[in-house]
């Protein structure tokens, strides 16, 4: 079939095979040609920008990780200063000091357990140099080698990396602070990181090439250097990198990131030769990469052809099988074999499910239509000529009225009204309000007949009276309770109509009779009219069950349960639908 293409006539459709071939060819060869035409300057600019951006990004990550580590160390120091520690410093008696010190020990052990990234920590007396609490032995004395101060913020001193005070050679990060920042305290808290954190923070190779990392205070003075021969402690680093990605000084590239919250700087310094090796290496690899790309493109094209085109053919075969014959859709299709592609297999399985579901819906539709016609015929069989019945009953009503028989007049009036409703033909569904009015007329007739030997209690909600229900739905339920369920004396039938939380209407009819067995209930509900009892209009509970399933589906069918000497309950649930057929 030709596809219209505006004023240029018709566009010829392309096959998937051709489209894949052209797409892969263009997406592979064109970029390679563009890169080949580009000059070395373009390659240098692109790679230089890429390398500089990568280094700056990694440096910013280092800065962020260090800030997070220092915050964590400060948080641990705050956890160490609890109420028991302050009370311990103020305690006078030995027993109080002992109890409080045990509480502090337990608290500090919990702090150490819940913070695996910290190493040594202790609380020391600044005047006596005594260590009160410590999680590891302290090998360095309080007045030992000075620790490099990176910055001081709100009374907390942040030290640059230095050797651990537990006696090892491993570099660590640390902070120190008084136990009480608000008042003068002679006790200090010292917390250092786990030695492994240094390698994670200041790794030489995390930028893709060897780099020297330097930390300075907010004035640019070096407080830590990984190469003190080139960048000695106390020297001042260049400070003109605010608007530049990097700065080239002598034989090194300088990259810098600043901690905006604390003011210190971290530098990454890379040798020129190492920096240009990245560019030169990419330039040397370009030709080999181009050849590899062409080869990979060919392989990918063949692979895509296999994983796409073959399943498409099988799916086309599945679709081709649907020619309107839904009687055999549930049979296994010869094209339903697996394609080993999850998405295609799922689509084909869903397609098979759809075909099966459509076939089942068609069968259910046919079955519902047949049952509906069956019910109409069965109902017509039990109907008499309405005009003849009405005329005869009107004559009876007139004669009774003429002779003053008011009870007979009332009985005939109610019966005529009930008969008109039951024999009505104005649609399949009526408002629940009309159904309840007809039910009240039926109950009145039966109470007159049995001299009011039974009682019917009806509980309804005004909010559901506009719901649409099949005509003649409730009378067979009361009829069944009257003929099969009532006790000999004091019979009670309860009808309740309620609105459930899920929006469905629950209708229940309960009697206080002797109850029925499961076999008796099954016979009342089965389709075989010769096997069930005929009472009243003779249609029985099967009419109710069938009409529910026809109009509302299988989930709305009539159900029952019964217990010996406790009566029988018939119930069903239907959706709350208004006159427009919409669910409320």
From TrEMBL:
InterPro entries: Bact_2-comp_sensor_kinase (IPR050640), HATPase_C_sf (IPR036890), HATPase_dom (IPR003594), His_kinase_dom (IPR005467), Sig_transdc_His_kin-like_C (IPR004358), Sig_transdc_His_kin_internal (IPR010559)
Domain Histidine kinase: 473-578
Catalyses which reaction(s): ATP + protein L-histidine = ADP + protein N-phospho-L-histidine
Subcellular location(s) per record: Cell membrane
GO cellular component: plasma membrane
SMART domains: HATPase_c
UniProt KW keywords: ATP-binding, Cell membrane, Kinase, Membrane, Nucleotide-binding, Phosphoprotein, Transferase, Transmembrane, Transmembrane helix, Two-component regulatory system
GO molecular-function terms, A-Z: ATP binding; phosphorelay sensor kinase activity
Keyword ATP-binding: yes
EC number: 2.7.13.3
Pfam families: HATPase_c, His_kinase
Membrane spanning residue stretches: 20-43, 282-305
Top EC group: transferase
UniProt entry tagged with the keyword Transmembrane: yes
Top-rank lineage group of the source organism: Bacteria
Membrane-protein topology: Multi-pass membrane protein
Protein name from the UniProt record: histidine kinase
Species this chain originates from: Paenibacillus hemerocallicola
